[in-house]
Amino acid sequence: MPVTLKDIAKRVGYSVTTVSRALAGYEDVAEDTRRKIIMAAREMGYYPDFTARSLRRRRTDTVGFVIPVAEHYLSDPFFLELLAGIGDGAVEQGFDLLISTCKPLGSEEREVYRRMVRGRRVDGIVVARTRREDQRISYLVGEGFPTVAFGRTTLNLDFPYIDVDGEDGVRQAMEHLINLGHRRIAFISPPSYLMFAEHRLIGYKRALEKHGLDFDPSLVVEGELTQSSGYRRMNQLLDLDDPPTAVVCGNDLMALGAISASQERGLKVGRDVAIVGFDDIPLAEHSHPPLTTVHQPIYEIGKRLSHMLVQIIQGQGLAETHTIVQPKLVVRESCGYAERR
User: Fold this and answer.
1) How confident is the model over 172-199, as a mean pLDDT?
2) DSSP state of 336
3) What is this structure's pTM?
4) I need a labelling partner for 272 at 20 to 30 A (CA). Which of 32, 148, 209, 319 fits?
């Protein structure tokens, strides 16, 4: 027989009403009482009827996240780290996480968001890898739907977000390479429709300008945030009449692909060519050679986004709606100590 509220009330010595309100999260129940009731419910194996509770409260206690699946993004360590943070943050607040996938920038993606919002499948949505003119955010804000984002946009809309200072992150990488003696440095950019691609390209250009180095358009190529695209773009750069001695990549997966392309040509990464990534995914430390990269706290950002979203859903004000996180360069062997040309 399933455990009922009446069974729990009998065990803890409180009324059924108190037990019900404690498990539903009402604030008029003392915290000690709430903890005692929740502990007893767990020990007894109580599972609330979420369908009935959702109908009563008009809430699902679920947050949504849609992953743009272009090429094996479900195996992208960036999204795995972010998902872990969002999921753990949701659980800490007593919420579940609903994950969906779709190809970006198409009608399929728009329909996924409509189903989540108009079908009331979730109470709020986390948006990641924001775009310059992000129609997902335009739609969610227009619907008045609780939304938080990992990233900024060029839209004239006010929405809560956390972002990483990509401009400064690439600047740190460039400064390090220039200090090692590199003067011909390439940049494998993320797709240009993504907002953070613009920020990182600005960091690249400003570092060149600061040190009196000319901007060469042939040294900037656009990848797709995948290892295979990093491999292709690195080969393109190495085919130049005057190839770069160092490359900054818009993310770690493209940097790992660039390492593979270099090694296939017999180049020693860290000596013949320097390669730097961005993200500091777990694979970066254990690549061959270990990857110099710009660290951003992906997991922690995911947790913070979840906490922010639940606060909005529960009608609480946010202490801070716009947060810019400062990244940090992590120096490993892939940039080496370059010989000056």
Assistant:
1) 97
2) -
3) 0.81
4) 209
